[in-house]
Write a structure and sequence with these properties.
With 577 residues, the chain is of the alpha/beta class. The protein folds into three domains: 1-94 and 178-188 and 200-259, 3-Layer(aba) Sandwich (Rossmann fold), CATH 3.40.50; 101-173, no CATH class; 279-299 and 307-316 and 339-357 and 367-528 and 537-565, P-loop containing nucleotide triphosphate hydrolases (Rossmann fold, 3-Layer(aba) Sandwich), CATH 3.40.50.300. It contains 20 helices and 20 strands.
C-alpha cells in the first residue's frame, strides 16, 4: 500500500459556515490525511469535532451556505467537483457512500432490484438485463442469503443487517475506488456489526478499495482500521497507524478520549470525563431534589413488603399481529416475547441485552405501559399493572415508572422551550403547588443533570446530542419516579458524551436510590452499569446472572458468543496476538 498513489488525498482543508454578523464559523481547519488503496482509515472524535463534515466534503455534500474555503480534496489525484456531470470524478461511480441508518438510505417504495439496477444504469453503459445480473452478483458478494429472492424484496422485509448490506452493495455497484462509511454499524447489535465489519475489511483486502470510516466506536477502530485520525474542535490532534495511536497516544485529548471508552474486561467506578460540567454544583442540585423522590421523604405510595422485588415480570408473552386488510386473507403474526420472567430489586440496575429483534425493547414498552402483553403479568410493588389480574395503570403507577428513549433528537418536542418540556410532567402530576414552584423545580432538575439553569429558556435544537439526552433524563426525573426504563440511552452518542451520561445515571442512582432497567446492545456499557443482567435470544430469556458472573463465567453458549463478538481495545489491528 505504501508506494501506490493515494485513493484520497486531503490537504490543508478548511470548511466554514458564514454567520449573521459577517464572520464565519470554522468547522474544519487545516485538515490533511491520505488513504492508500486497500486501506481503512478511521476518523474519530466527539460530536462537533468535524469528522462528519470532512466525510460530507469528500462526498460533495456540504450544504450551502457552507463552503470549502481553502485546501483540496483529490480522488486518485483528480479533483472532485460536486454537481459537475463532466467532472473526472463522480459520486456513485468513483466514490461510494454508506450511511448510519439503512432505512433512510433506501427508498421504501421500491424493491432492492429496482434500486440497485437504477444505480448501475446511471453510471454504467449496459442493458437492464446485464444490470440485473450485476445486482445479483453484488448481493452475493456482500453475503445476502438467498440473493435471487431478496432482489424482489422491499427494504422493510429485510433485517437491519441485510439492509446495510444492500446499501453497501449499492455503494459498490460501479466499483468505486473510495468508500466513505459514516457510522455504518452504530444502529446494529454486536453480531450484525461483526458481519458488516468483516465485510468492509474483506472489501479493502480483496478489492483494494480505500475506506474512510467515520465512527465514534473505538473498538471498531481497533478491530479493522489500518490508520486512525483523531479530531477535536475542527482540527486534527493526532494521526498514525492504529496500534501506535491507540497504544501510545501523544496528545492529551487523544489519551483522554481513549480512556473514556467503556471496558468489558473490568468494572470501573466512574468513566474518565472530557467535559466542563460543574460536578459540585450538579451534586448539590441532586441533593436538593433528592427529598422529592419516592422512598426518600414522605412518599405515600405503598412500598411493598421489605426485601420484595420492586418490579416482577412473570411469564410475559407478547404477540404481534401482521398488518392486512383484505377480507378472508389470513394474517400471520409472530411472537416477540415468549414466556419471559425476571424481577428487579429496589435500587438495582438491571440490564437486558440481546440481538436486534430479540424482544428487549418490547419488554421495555410493556413495563413502561406503552404496550399491552398477550399473556403473563407485570407487577410493580406487588400490584399487577399489566397482564393477567391487572386492573390497569393508575396515575400513581404511570408517574412511578418513566422512560428514557434512545434518540434524544426525536424524544423532545422541537416546538417547546426546555422549561415547558420539563415542567409538563410536574404540572400534570400536580407535583408543584404553583407554576413558580414548578419553575424552581425545573431549574434544580437542569442543574442536577449538569447544565446551567438558563437552558430552560432555549429550544431543544440549541443543544448537542449529549445535552439533549441530559434534558431527557431531567424530564424523566421531573415525574419523581421510582423506576426508570432506559432504552439504549447512549447508543447514538460518542464515547465522551456517553461517559457523561453513564456517570450521570450512576450519580443519580447513588444520590436518590433510583432503580434502573437498562436496555442495551453495548455489552461494555452493561458491564460498567449493571448489578444483574438478563440475556435474550429470539424472544426467550436464556441466562440471568450477576453482572460480574455473567461477564467472567457465562454459562449459555449464546452469551459466550455475544461476548466474543464485542470489538474492544484489547486486540488492535497491526499488533501481534
Amino acid at each position: 500500500m505504501g508506494d501506490a498513489a493515494p485513493v484520497l488525498a486531503i490537504r490543508d482543508l478548511r470548511i466554514e459556515y458564514p454567520l449573521a454578523d459577517g464572520g464565519a464559523f470554522v468547522a474544519v481547519e487545516g485538515a490533511s490525511l491520505a488513504i492508500q488503496p486497500g486501506e481503512i482509515h478511521a476518523l474519530v472524535g466527539e460530536s462537533g469535532a468535524g469528522k462528519t463534515t470532512i466525510g460530507n466534503a469528500v462526498l460533495g455534500l456540504i450544504e450551502k451556505p457552507g463552503r470549502i474555503a481553502a485546501g483540496s480534496i483529490l480522488i486518485d489525484g483528480k479533483p472532485f467537483v460536486s454537481g459537475d456531470p463532466n467532472g473526472e470524478v463522480r459520486l456513485g461511480r468513483d466514490i461510494g457512500a454508506v450511511f448510519q441508518d439503512p432505512m433512510t438510505s433506501l427508498n421504501p417504495l421500491f424493491t432492492v432490484e429496482s434500486q440497485l439496477v437504477e444505480t448501475i444504469l446511471a453510471h454504467r453503459p449496459m442493458g437492464r438485463r446485464a444490470a440485473r445480473d450485476r445486482a445479483l452478483e453484488l448481493l452475493r458478494s456482500v453475503g445476502i442469503p438467498e440473493p435471487e429472492r431478496r432482489l424482489g424484496a422491499y427494504p422493510h422485509q429485510l433485517s437491519g443487517g441485510q439492509r446495510q448490506r444492500v446499501v453497501i452493495a449499492a455503494a459498490l455497484a460501479c466499483q468505486p475506488r473510495l468508500l466513505v462509511a459514516d457510522e455504518p454499524t452504530t444502529a446494529l447489535d454486536v453480531s450484525i456489526q461483526a458481519q458488516i465489519l468483516d465485510l468492509l475489511r474483506d472489501l479493502a483486502d480483496t478489492q483494494g478499495i480505500g475506506i474512510l470510516l467515520v465512527t465514534h466506536n473505538m473498538g471498531v477502530v481497533a478491530q479493522i482500521a489500518d490508520r486512525v485520525t483523531i479530531m477535536h474542535r475542527g482540527a486534527i490532534v493526532e494521526s498514525g497507524p492504529t496500534a501506535q495511536v491507540l497504544r501510545q497516544p501523544q496528545a492529551d485529548y487523544a489519551r483522554a478520549l481513549i480512556a473514556a471508552v467503556p471496558r468489558i474486561d473490568v468494572r470501573l467506578d466512574r468513566f474518565p470525563m472530557l467535559d466542563g460540567v460543574n460536578h459540585q454544583k450538579a451534586a448539590r442540585a441532586r441533593g436538593a431534589f433528592r427529598g422529592k423522590l419516592p422512598g426518600t421523604v414522605g412518599e405515600s405510595a405503598p412500598a411493598g413488603e421489605p426485601g420484595a422485588p420492586l418490579l416482577e415480570v412473570r411469564n410475559l408473552t407478547v404477540d404481534y399481529q401482521a398488518a392486512g386488510w383484505l377480507p378472508g386473507v389470513a394474517r400471520k403474526g409472530f411472537r416477540a416475547v415468549d414466556d419471559v420472567s425476571f424481577s428487579i430489586m429496589p435500587g438495582e440496575v438491571f440490564g437486558l441485552v440481546g440481538e436486534s429483534g430479540c424482544g428487549k425493547t418490547t419488554i421495555a414498552n410493556v413495563v413502561a405501559g406503552l404496550r399491552r402483553p398477550t399473556g403473563g403479568t407485570v407487577r410493580f410493588r406487588g400490584a399487577a399493572i399489566a397482564g393477567e389480574g391487572s386492573a390497569g395503570w393508575t396515575v400513581r403507577s404511570r408517574r412511578a415508572i418513566q422512560m428514557i428513549f434512545q434518540d434524544p433528537y426525536s424524544s423532545l418536542n422541537a416546538r417547546m422551550r426546555v422549561g415547558s418540556i420539563l415542567s409538563e410532567p410536574i404540572l400534570f402530576y400536580r407535583l408543584a403547588a404553583t407554576r413558580d414552584e414548578a419553575r424552581r423545580d425545573v431549574e434544580t432538575l437542569i442543574e442536577a443533570v449538569g447544565m446551567d439553569a438558563d437552558a430552560a429558556g432555549r429550544f431543544p435544537h440549541a443543544f448537542s446530542g449529549g445535552q439533549r439526552q441530559r434534558l431527557s433524563i431531567a424530564r424523566a426525573l421531573g415525574a419523581r419516579p421510582t423506576l426508570i426504563v432506559c432504552d439504549e440511552p447512549t447508543s447514538s452518542l460518542d464515547v465522551s458524551i456517553q461517559a457523561q451520561i453513564l456517570n450521570l445515571l450512576k450519580d443519580l442512582r447513588d444520590a436518590t436510590g433510583l432503580t434502573l432497567l437498562l436496555i442495551s446492545h453495548d455489552l461494555a456499557v452493561v458491564r460498567q452499569m449493571c448489578d444483574r443482567v438478563a440475556v435474550m435470544k429470539s424472544g426467550k430469556l436464556v441466562e440471568t446472572a450477576a453482572a460480574e458472573t455473567l461477564f467472567t463465567a457465562p454459562e449459555h453458549p449464546y452469551t459466550r458468543d455475544l461476548l466474543a463478538l464485542v470489538p474492544t481495545l484489547d486486540h488492535v489491528r497491526g499488533e501481534p496476538r
